[in-house]
Amino acid sequence: QVQLVESGGGLVQAGGSLRLSCVASGRALSTLAMGWFRQAPGKEREFVTAISRSGVATRSADSVKGRFTISRDNAKNTGYLQMASLKPEDTAVYYCAAREAVVLTTTTASYDYWGQGTQVTVSP
């Protein structure tokens, strides 16, 4: 069973940066594609970005392109989400997710494993 644990969330001013981490256990992360999702109060969980097993391919939502960067270090079994130029509308709980299949997808239903989430709050 794969377990994912996020960290790095917090409170930041608009225009600031944060880096989230996602540590996997129970399985080599190199065998899983990874994604980040977020959920704001009263809204559905939405796709943010995803990365292939090797790290070569990525896919991102239009709302974060040019600001957020996903990466991974398979040797450390850890994935990262570097967030820059943060906006108040980025405020949400951010979730790390992983899936068995190769293809990068954007739907929550297509991911097999989920972390508990980490809160990111961006003040105006």
Notes on the structure:
0% of the residues lie in helices and 49% in strands. It has 124 residues and is mostly beta strands.
Q: Spell the H/E element sequence.
A: EEEEEEEEEEE
Structural class: mainly beta
Considering DSSP H and I runs of 4 or more, what fraction of the residues is helical? under 10%
Give average pLDDT, whole number: 96
Identify low-pLDDT runs.
none
Q: Report the principal-axis shape.
A: globular
| N-to-C CA distance | 40 Å
Radius of gyration: 13 Å
Percent of residues in beta strands:
over 45%
Report the strand count: 11
Number of helices: 0
- How many strands, which pairing sense, and closed or not: the largest β-sheet? 7 strands, mixed
Index terms:
124 residues, mainly beta, 7-stranded mixed beta sheet, 4-stranded antiparallel beta sheet, 0% helix, globular
